[in-house]
Specification:
The chain is of the alpha/beta class. The chain has eight helices and six strands; from the N terminus they run E-H-H-H-H-H-E-H-E-E-E-H-E-H.
């Protein structure tokens, strides 16, 4: 019996919001607070449903990371991955994933976050990764996305682009946010 395991990252496998945690790691707590104050009108629009999750996230990334050198971003991402992910894992879910690994299940982390601060840990643990992709121009971050935000129905679209679901007898999904609802429907 072939098993596919699909796992949301933020606030599911990783206990926190990795975008916020990575930004704090990269820029410091003071800069994060200043950024939240500067972005508060946009964040309020997002909370009220006036702008999409994707628009809000692009504005956040533009504010904090536009024109950052991609190599430095990758380096900081690897540091974050090695230092922060292991100590902030949801141990219960991680133990379940490890049992699925022992059974040779195909395991994908499916997240709206960016691979740059997750891939070091996923590669080390032999997990596949489906993420939102950043736009990079001249080795600098633009703040825009190269793909749609991997959230909601887009998670399912991206999964189906990469994986033939018919090849699996059992699909197990771990997710707990509103961005996971459609992915959760893939369980069988």
């Amino acid at each position: 019996m072939k098993t596919l395991v699909l796992v949301d990252f933020d606030k599911t496998l990783y206990k926190k919001d990795s975008l916020i945690e990575f930004t704090r790691f990269y820029k410091g707590t003071f800069q994060l607070i200043i950024g939240f104050i500067a972005l508060s009108p946009m964040l309020l629009k997002w909370k009220l449903g006036k702008i999409s999750n994707e628009t809000a996230k692009q504005e956040f990334m533009t504010y904090f990371f536009k024109n950052e050198h991609y190599n430095l971003f990758l380096e900081k991402g690897k540091q974050f991955s090695n230092e922060n992910i292991p100590r902030n894992l949801n141990k219960n879910i991680w133990e379940k994933i490890q049992k699925f690994q022992e059974q040779n299940a195909a395991i994908y982390i499916v997240t709206a976050s960016f691979r740059e601060w997750i891939y070091g840990w996923t590669e080390e643990n032999n997990l596949k990764l489906i993420t939102t992709k950043l736009e990079i121009v001249n080795n600098k971050i633009t703040g825009k996305f190269k793909t749609k935000n991997c959230y909601g129905i887009e998670k399912v679209n991206r999964i189906k682009e990469k994986i033939n679901l018919e090849n699996y007898d059992k699909i197990v999904v771990f997710g707990n946010g509103k961005g996971d609802y459609e992915m959760l429907q893939l369980s069988k």
